[in-house]
């Protein structure tokens, strides 16, 4: 695909006429100004191999969209299964919560992210579907009703998934709301009460019979490891939504806060560029698409309404355009690589005593009097050894497990190699940066292996080090003159000098390069693990790959973990995500429903299922000074000498960090009121604890700011007047599972604070949500410069951390 396409017909892209003058009669007829609407613009670029690159921009006056959601919750008997969560070491932890407990919490999380201008309803299904909470505005009273209804739900019965979805679509259609409407379906397994032709065909039939149903999107969420992923993905794909795999409870928060942010930032759902699906168009974002020789371009939403036509001139491709085209082509290749193709059929024979696991179609002949348990969803086939031997034949879909697994593994590995070659080639010229990232990853893996780390920890270490190495290498790019020389030597013979200069200027700041790099991280990380063996593939790998492909098809960021999707969110979605994360972190943990678990399990869930954010203490807490006096925490300044938390020696304050908080949830540890995840040690205690795990929360509307301190030297924290030990920033503790943190406990937080306004004077002021996670980080890893109070400091920002969504991690 190297031959260039002919020039696009310019007549197809007509310039709009001049605007009417201010005194035009047409304008004067409108007595009231119309509210501003979202606007969409198309930019067409020709001459990129055999296609045209189309850039779609959405400019929006609004910051969010009011929506109507109908949650469809599976309450079948299997929802009583205990739900696990992975800790930082990759080990599965049990807290006594069932899958239903976690799904209830997810529903509460969705409600917490909505305003009163949105609407929410709830339908449950087991053998039958029931509307347990009619859709209404998400005000305080409605949220209380939702919590009451959720508290009364218990697992029972079978899994009539279609019954729940059908009722949800019918209820939303009956409401006739003008808001964008969506179904959010939560389930843990295989439907065992099914409509004729299956759920996807039933949805298609309903859309044909009831036209307005076509305007409702369906998002499906599969919990656990016994899913009919083909059905869940098929329903979401048919109805313009996403299928998300939620392997354990630790992914609940990020999955549903991201969904809320995406829906509320959307200006147009399920958009089409001609016949090419684009997914949702969100405010403040730019998408790219490749079309082969279009004669005209028309952008429409799912209702068929025209959003934009191509206008103006057709642009000649620049180097930046060719890079975006390469990134878009890579995205399409990634979707194809992750897609699980229908397996071929073949004939096989079985003998008495054989035991297989398979799927069957067609005629089946079995032993006389023997009942086969082989079904359309695949189960063991048993034979009675006492029966007389007879031939048994069937059409077996063998590759459900084997061929699909091997094919996906091979194609994904090949794509990772191609992506590396693309970044190292003349278009990007980032071979040295790739080598630096690989070297950083190799060192991290060696250290983790030497320390006896688990496979999960080694992979976390590799991924984090690769990303950090990549970002650091981009920041250390050589001077522009040196890059011009190197790039000139790598360009094809006869390439114009202008391309050399343009390439040199873009190296290290190119958004397209980071999109491809994110794909490499996933392909060589989680995708590689998911396809590493038939066992991993069958247990969870295929669900993960389907889920990741679904997010890329929709062009959305469905969690903070998968790096290849982080670039999809723009500024509006990032802000909404920060708000949603903050709302989720303030939810009280549910009570465990399984026997043998006490209140501590609720705190454990909050610790594992919320993201540990900035930890601080209220300003009215009293700190003990080394000279024997006391001082309010809010009055402490740079140079004050407090009492070290562990040694009782002097602890000199280097910087005070004050964070603006809205109605913070605080926990009293001795005489100190701290946020949930700021490690403290109770008076007379001998270990660090999270306040949320040792005491009950209180929402304090009188507290506007919370405080944390960075100390000189090796001080670990400070003591309050009452003897409570409060940990400091950059404390250096690594051998304590509560105190240790890869950002707050290391020099990384010091480096981040140095770039903030006020650090040299010893006082940094932050807004709520200033601490953020970069792409793929489970823990906080940076400070958002937009949430630092004061003039912007001169700073160098990691490229991926800027271009990936910066997700606020609240206290």
UniProtKB/TrEMBL annotation:
**Which SMART domains does this one have?**
VWA
Per its UniProt record, what InterPro entries does this chain match? CLCR, Vint_dom, Vwaint_dom, VWF_A, vWFA_dom_sf
Annotated protein name in UniProt: VWFA domain-containing protein
Residues of the VWFA domain? 68-276
The record, for Pfam families, names: Vint (PF14623), VWA_2 (PF13519), Vwaint (PF14624)
Q: Which organism is it from?
A: Pelagomonas calceolata
Q: Domain of life here? A: Eukaryota
Q: Where is this region: Disordered?
A: 1-28
């Amino acid at each position: 695909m190297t031959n260039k396409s002919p020039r696009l017909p310019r007549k197809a892209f007509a310039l709009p006429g001049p605007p009417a003058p201010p005194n035009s009669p047409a304008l004067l007829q409108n007595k009231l100004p119309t509210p501003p609407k979202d606007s969409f613009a198309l930019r067409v670029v020709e001459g990129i191999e055999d296609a045209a690159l189309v850039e779609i921009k959405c400019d929006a006056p609004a910051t969010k969209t009011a929506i109507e959601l109908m949650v469809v919750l599976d309450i079948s008997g299997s929802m009583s299964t205990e739900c696990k969560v992975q800790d930082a070491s990759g080990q599965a932890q049990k807290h006594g919560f069932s899958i239903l407990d976690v799904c209830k919490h997810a529903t509460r999380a969705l409600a917490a992210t909505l305003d009163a201008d949105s609407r929410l309803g709830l339908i449950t299904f087991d053998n039958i579907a029931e509307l347990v909470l009619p859709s209404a505005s998400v005000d305080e009273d409605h949220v209380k009703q939702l919590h009451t209804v959720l508290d009364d739900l218990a697992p029972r019965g079978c899994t009539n998934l279609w019954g729940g979805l059908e009722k949800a679509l019918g209820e939303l259609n009956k409401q006739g709301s003008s808001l964008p409407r969506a179904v959010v379906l939560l389930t843990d397994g295989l439907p065992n009460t099914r409509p004729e032709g299956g759920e996807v065909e039933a949805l298609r039939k309903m859309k044909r019979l009831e036209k307005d149903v076509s305007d409702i999107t369906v998002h499906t969420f599969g919990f656990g490891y016994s899913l009919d992923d083909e059905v869940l993905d098929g329903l979401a794909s048919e109805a313009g939504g996403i299928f998300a795999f939620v392997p354990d409870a630790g992914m609940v928060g990020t999955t549903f806060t991201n969904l809320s942010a995406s829906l509320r930032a959307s200006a147009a759902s399920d958009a089409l560029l001609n016949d090419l699906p684009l997914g949702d168009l969100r405010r403040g974002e730019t998408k790219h698409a490749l079309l082969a020789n279009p004669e005209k371009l028309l952008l429409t939403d799912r209702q068929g309404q025209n959003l934009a036509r191509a206008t103006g001139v057709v642009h000649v491709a620049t180097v930046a355009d060719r890079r975006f085209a390469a990134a878009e082509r890579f995205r399409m290749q990634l979707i194809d690589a992750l897609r699980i193709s229908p397996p071929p059929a073949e004939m096989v024979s079985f003998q008495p005593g054989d035991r297989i696991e398979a799927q069957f179609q067609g005629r089946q002949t079995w032993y006389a009097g023997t009942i086969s348990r082989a079904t359309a969803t695949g189960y063991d086939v048993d034979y009675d050894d006492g029966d007389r031997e007879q031939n048994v034949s069937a059409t077996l879909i063998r590759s459900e497990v084997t061929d699909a697994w091997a094919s996906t593994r091979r194609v994904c590995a090949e794509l990772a190699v191609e992506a590396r070659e693309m970044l190292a080639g003349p278009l990007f010229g980032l071979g040295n940066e790739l080598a630096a990232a690989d070297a950083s990853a190799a060192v991290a893996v060696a250290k983790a292996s030497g320390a006896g780390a688990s496979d999960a920890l080694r992979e976390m270490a590799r991924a984090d080090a690769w990303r950090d190495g990549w970002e650091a290498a981009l920041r250390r790019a050589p001077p522009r003159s040196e890059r011009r020389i190197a790039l000139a030597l790598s360009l094809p013979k006869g390439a114009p000098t202008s391309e050399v200069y343009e390439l040199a200027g873009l190296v290290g700041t190119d958004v397209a390069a980071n999109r491809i790099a994110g794909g490499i991280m996933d392909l060589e990380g989680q995708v590689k693990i998911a396809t590493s063996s038939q066992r991993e593939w069958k247990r969870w790998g295929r669900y993960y790959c389907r889920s990741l492909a679904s997010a890329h098809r929709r062009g959305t960021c469905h969690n903070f973990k998968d790096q290849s999707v982080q670039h999809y969110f723009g500024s509006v979605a990032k802000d909404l995500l920060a708000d949603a994360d903050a709302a989720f972190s303030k939810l009280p943990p549910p009570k465990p429903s399984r026997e043998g678990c006490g209140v501590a399990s609720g705190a454990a869930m909050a610790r594992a299922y919320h993201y540990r954010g900035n930890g601080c203490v209220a300003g009215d807490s009293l700190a003990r000074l080394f000279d024997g006096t006391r001082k309010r925490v809010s009055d402490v300044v740079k140079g004050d000498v407090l009492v070290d938390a562990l040694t009782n020696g002097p602890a000199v304050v280097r910087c005070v960090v004050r964070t603006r908080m809205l109605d913070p949830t605080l926990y009293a540890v001795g005489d100190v009121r701290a946020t949930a995840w700021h490690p403290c040690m109770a008076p007379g205690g001998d270990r660090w604890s999270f306040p949320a795990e040792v005491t009950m929360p209180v929402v304090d509307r009188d507290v506007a700011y919370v405080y944390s301190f960075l100390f000189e030297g090796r001080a670990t924290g400070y003591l309050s007047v009452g003897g409570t030990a409060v940990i400091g920033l950059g404390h250096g503790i690594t051998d304590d599972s509560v105190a240790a943190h890869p950002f707050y406990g290391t020099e990384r937080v010091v480096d981040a604070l140095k770039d903030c306004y006020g650090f040299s004077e010893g006082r940094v002021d932050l807004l709520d949500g200033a601490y953020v996670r970069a792409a793929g980080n489970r823990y906080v890893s940076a400070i958002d410069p937009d949430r630092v109070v004061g003039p912007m400091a001169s700073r160098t920002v990691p490229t991926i951390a800027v271009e990936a969504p910066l997700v606020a991690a609240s206290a």
